[in-house]
Amino acid sequence: MKINYLEKLESENLRKNVPDFRIGDDLKVYYKIIEGEKERVQPFEGTLIARKGRGVSRTITLRKISFGEGVERTFPLLSPKVEKVEVTRHGNVRKAKLYYLRDKVGKKAKVKEKKTLLGKSSQTPAALATESVEVGEKA
Length: 139
What we know:
With 139 residues, the chain is mainly β. It has two helices and five strands. The longest helix is centred in the first third of the chain and has 9 residues, at 5-13. The radius of gyration is 20 Å and the shape is globular. The termini are far apart. The relative contact order is 0.18.
């Protein structure tokens, strides 16, 4: 039996607390910054425009507009410098990379929000499937 040391090393270092997110979602990444002897956590909030890599080398690219100027930042997702990642909003897109947002300005640079069922979004699909109305009864 052949042991792949790279896979073993990657599986030991994979982070378990990464939420499920997709391209077009708005994320808030808390990144540790070391300045001299001081250490602080700086949040960066933006739209996820690209995901690259697999395993330990996975990266995400976020884009936001700051003071009228587009700012993009790439984070190594499983780096120890990344404190946590939060999903603030789910976007509705049909592409794998959103590089076209670089050319857009104002409202056109926004990603539409994914619509959910009102009032039933807190229930699981299995719970929704078990709800039924008896045949012949009037609601």
